[in-house]
Amino acid sequence: MIMAADSQLQLDASWVDYGLIALYFAFVLGIGILARRSVSSSLDFFLSGRSLPAWVTGLAFISANLGAVEIIGMSANGANYGVPTVHYFWIGAVPAMLFLGVVMMPFYYGSKVRSVPEFMNRRFGPTAHLVNAISFAVAQLLIAGINLFLLASVVDALLGWPLWVSLIAAAAIVLTYTALGGLSAAIYNEVLQFFVIVAALLPLTLVGLKKVGGYDGLKEKITATSGGAEQLSSWPGTALTGIESPLLSVIGIVFGLGFVLSFGYWTTNFVEVQRAMASSSISAAQRSPIIGAYPKMFVPFIVILPGMIAAVLVNEIAQPKAQGGSPDYNNALLYLIRDLLPNGMLGVAIAGLLASFMAGMAANISAFNTVFSYDLWQDYIVKDRDDDYYTRVGRIATVGATLVAIGTATFAAQYENIMNYLQTLFGFFNAPLFATFILGMFWKRMTPTAGWVGLVSGTVAAVAVAVLSEDTLGSLSVGVLPLSGQGASFVAAGAAFFVDLAVSIVVSMVTKPKPESELRGLVWSLTPRSDYHQEDPEHLSWYQKPTQLAGVALVIVIVLNILFW
């Protein structure tokens, strides 16, 4: 875990660094205050009035994901496993983002639903809707806690505050601008945060590469470590998955990560989909995840590379690793910042880390308050009230979620590599939801009963694998299955997907489906393409056409995979 009050990790910040950080916070809060003026309805608060351009929602789409787990978790993975970590981007993200833009966003946006659970309600009915809304809300509170914990850890490293004080201070800033301006405040801050993150991590990467003698020097030093040359090739990634068989490791990465976890996260996770749904048109909504895919495929160069550099430069990691020990990989990026950056650049780097953590937490909180207000409170607790009432509920939910996240932040402390915890949560919540979504969207015979029974069964299957594994749930795991780390999460996700599919098919065959007349806009074969596409696509430039824009991105990511094979 990231240790509070670790004197070795104390960053030597000067007044220049503090000034830059204060300036950044002033911008963040200012955006929240300005966004407050544009909130006149619940649609403005929860979905920015569906009025934002594609480039804004596209950058927010990727920035919402570029949070604490992405920055700290992937740099930790880079230090631990090396180049195979790129699978989380080039296999486990970009293809699913392109699929979301080309295939699924027309259904989300065209149906005018306000959330992913609301789409579930229209397709499968209230029981599946309630199951999905509750599971999503719980997941966001847990993941927001991860972001908050890591954010507080940076504040602790900077100021030396006790962890609980750092947690409260960090939460207060995110709460203020999210409660004031709703999704618009979150999205515009995410655009700002994207550029601040790049400005922080790019110089760190370049300075680190110079220190180790360029990429060739880095390869030479990594080859001499205990991880060896395997850490310089993306395949078969046996160390990453924890699966000894190269063939089974590749299958785990391609199917468990690249299909089930990836598509489950990117295509059904309302945290991401919400950004695209705030766009001004169907075309803009489709382009949002596709635009986000372009910076996403290059993020490994400023996130994973610093972790790899830290593994050979930072004594606290390099020495225990050389001796076969277990370094605190979560601290890799902070150690590197401490060792390489001078004052001034240190302030930018800290601001970048704070930006990433706030972006991730704000994304979780803004998605939570929408689902809580629309899908739980309005549908099941207090119905038929005026619009202002539900906007107030959303603001109260924002406060409540932030307070709960302070509590869930302590769960993350149990994991030496935070990605293990996150992938476990994705296996529980995202993998079964994706199975239900994909089957229901392309098979009109799937019934409402199958929708909720499949979801519950898939989740139970994922939890069962985690409990039977060696260490996925810490002391709760019994060690019956020879699976550990992120490989166990891949297997759990695969189990959730297959069990959900099997149960859904069986249940559908013995229960009554919805009439076809009620499934237009919800099932692919029953929805005319004219319903959800631009009327005059020939008047658009190639970069405004989602399919062509996605095609170029797919070619680039294939080339990157080949180069780092």
Automatic annotation (TrEMBL):
MF terms in GO: D-glucose:sodium symporter activity
Transmembrane stretches, start-end: 15-35, 55-76, 88-109, 130-155, 161-180, 192-209, 247-267, 297-318, 345-372, 393-415, 421-443, 450-468, 488-510
Membrane topology designation: Multi-pass membrane protein
The keyword Transmembrane helix is annotated on this UniProt entry: yes
Keywords, alphabetical: Membrane, Transmembrane, Transmembrane helix
Location in or out of the cell: Membrane
Signal peptide span: none
GO annotations of cellular component type: plasma membrane
This protein's record includes keyword Cell membrane: no
Main location: membrane
NCBIfam families: sss
Family membership noted in the UniProt record: Belongs to the sodium:solute symporter (SSF) (TC 2.A.21) family.
Identification of the protein by name: Sodium:solute symporter family protein
Source organism (scientific name): Nocardioides mesophilus
